[in-house]
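hey can u check if this looks right to u? its 353 residues, i copy pasted from the old doc so theres a chance i mangled smth
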Amino acid sequence: MKWSPKDSVGRVVESLAPAIQITIGALLAYSVAFYGLQHTTPLLAVTVCITSLGFSRDARPRRILQTAIGMVVGIAISEIALIYLGAGIIQIALVLLVVLIAARFISASSAFAVTAAIQAMLVQILPAPDGGVFIRTLDGLIGGVMALIVTALIPRDPRGIARSDANKLFDFFTETLQSLRLALRDANKSLSNQALKNARASQPLIDNWRMSLDSALSISRISPFLMKHKSELRKQRLLMRAMDLATRNLRVIVRRVNFLLKDDVARPYLADLCEQISEAVTNLQEGLSDQEDLDLARTQLLEIIKQLDPKKFGIADQLREASVLLLLRPLLVDLLCASGMTEDAARAELPEV
């Protein structure tokens, strides 16, 4: 993959808040263990905190707690093995195998299993610190608790991340509709081919938005700074679910348009519908922060959905062409749901065919 300075700078900007959060959490975990409990080398307090927080988009407290518990379990298993089995190459192999299996039981993440195993190997290989049995397990617990505390008190702007992910999906959606508009207006197959290529790669946009929004909602349950935004985030989750379905329908429409344009015939009326839908989706995007824009989008979509009758355009007997118009019907239902309507109410607006 070609290196891009713009992408690198973008990663740095996106990672700045998590980096600050991780730094503060690791520093606090170290301070509690070293200055508060007089642990001479609280290595695992720091490593467990750093690993639990990480740079993952999934910043849910449940995921952080699960990660911390898994690593602490690996550390404890390793310490128990040292006490009862002693140190040696056989013991290292046995502990590594047991921790890897336990980690795979706890989490589906393969990276998590490797991380837990590394913590266990640090216990096996590094010299035991002063302070007695299970001091390193205590350090691990300190790291995990500190990771949860900073998640609640120093959140990494989960609302902003969710909003950014939402905007990326909406940008894709409107760009795709505009590409379809131009392709249908000019019978431009290269544009429809590119739109199809982009549509096939669009699922990560939905997945990222869902993950960041789930993280924001989870953090809002424990963070005093985000609790007041729970209602807003729940509304956004309803919008996201509707846009997920709409995006799936859009992919189907792009494939059908790509097939339709093989005859090199322009369809200006379909191009006009794509333009109208694009304008409404732009208002849906603005509706992430303004209810009036959602209401405006709903009004626009209600006007569009009434046009989706093949008889209106004289194509009722033209199956290939009418199929595109019919595929727009479930898309409009999903978009109306995104604007706040129920599915039954949206379907009731469809003209009979």
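The mean pLDDT is 89.
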